Amino acid sequence: MSVINFATAEIGALLLVPTCLLAQPLRLDLRARSLRSFSRVICNLVFGHIAFPPATFLVVKGVFSGLGSANAGDFWNWVKSLWAWNSATYLYISMMHLPCWLLCIYFLIHTC
């Protein structure tokens, strides 16, 4: 991916690597009832939420231009502009990021 777009690969790595490394079924951590397992549950929930592309877009837009101006239509316009510009980010999100995110969410809600 870094051959196509280094910045996209770097952002993806910063979001997906911690998410993939921490993914462990939440039920196991909730049964353990220790501080370490509780902190892992919190990290899993935070990374699982932030790694979802629409959520990340809304958080970044909210930070830079205020939460009052962020809406779902802006995400759709951004995705359409990626498609129109033939950006590698569109391919990265659809073929790499979303499948990895879905796999991590599957691990989190998996029943043992």
Automatic annotation (TrEMBL):
The chain crosses the membrane at residues 6-24, 45-70, 90-109. InterPro entries: Gaa1. Keywords: Membrane, Transmembrane, Transmembrane helix. GO terms for cellular component: GPI-anchor transamidase complex. The keyword Iron does not apply. One of its GO terms (biological process) is attachment of GPI anchor to protein. This is Uncharacterized protein.
